[in-house]
Design brief:
Rossmann fold, 14 helices, 15 strands, binds adenosine-5'-triphosphate, alpha/beta, binds magnesium ion, 39% helix, VC0802-like, six-stranded mixed β-sheet
Amino acid sequence: MNFDSILIRYGEMAIKGKNRKYFERKLQDNLIKKLSQQFKHTRVRKQRDRMYVLLNGEDPHKVMQECQKVFGIHTLSFAVKVEKEEQAIKDAALYAFQDDPEAGTFKVSSRRADKSFPIGSQDLNYRVGGHILAHTEGVTVDVHQPDVEIKIEVRNDAAYITAQDYPGAGGFPVGTSGQSLLLLSGGIDSPVAGYLMMKRGVQLEAIHFHSPPFTSERAKQKVFDLTRELAKYGHRINVHVVPFTELQQKIHQQIPEGYSMTVMRRMMMRISEKIAEARGILSMTTGESLGQVASQTMESMNTINEVTNFPILRPLAAMDKLDIIDISKKINTYTISTLPYEDCCTIFVPKAPKTKPTRTNANYYESNVDFTEEINHAVNGTQIVEIKADEKVENEFEDLF
Ligand code: ATP
Ligand code: MG
């Protein structure tokens, strides 16, 4: 025996009323994109308020693992389809139950849509329950809080049996909440910020400010590797790599040290806004968290924010560092983020950045220097690299360590 399909239930999406059709279509699309490369035989079908992934012989647990990364899914269960025949149903129920070797208690809930099926629901619960008790050890029935609820649906075409609920990734299907441009450094925070936005249904593009030769190719590769991890939740992500050296050097030379960090961030925002606008993207996302470092005070955010009126989403603003680290470990970005390669900010970082910059001062210092040409160079020299989830990580660079 084997599982035929994976039943997909979507919790939070279901409350979205009129948008529901759109959400379902996106979820179906995202599932197809996620599975079609790796598991060529799978098919995704919608049926009333749920979806099924038909396995067609693909490995059930491997497919399940991939489905668990798709946002917009509340829970998932394996399903077995059998003939409407008592023994077949019993065997399938036992098989489905045994998928979870830890389960100590269960209950059986049957529904008989096909009223011509000769056994009533209660009676079927009882008979199937008896079969499971007879073929397991140390297992008991608990109708109130069972470890596993075995559900049997006797429909016109066949009987369908599901057991254990696997947790889905939650959130909304990627693409249902618009797009955002993620400012992605090589650090711990920005990939987590990107993940959280994707979970809310946002399709990301990423932007990275790169300052060769002060920052190496490896620092850039690190950003691609981080993007690849994020792409696992949303198929593919474009990374805009901005040549930032010229601007950074000019800032370094012309802006008082205490304000160089603030002005650099303002430049990043100006360039990000231009690129977002050109791509039809309506917001930016950063990994800023209040009070984490000198550049992330309320004053600093206010001063940086002055240069754009696009929304800047800061999903980590109120989060503790340890919680951010927990998420980064869960999404496999932590080990990449903690590789030692420097990023552009650590190199030009002033010894004592102003923790309480003001708009007035920032404007004053900027007004003494004309950055137009450097900003245009940066925007025009930006390269777009498309990162796909399923491409293997190529380390093109010699190992220096
Ligand atoms: P992270 O862990 O994401 O690097 P951080 O705690 O180091 O964040 P900062 O260095 O102050 O904080 O950066 C704040 C935010 O600015 C980052 O989360 C990121 O969104 C953005 N950022 C910083 N450096 C770059 C860069 N080189 N390219 C793109 N975005 C950047
Ligand atoms: Mg950083």
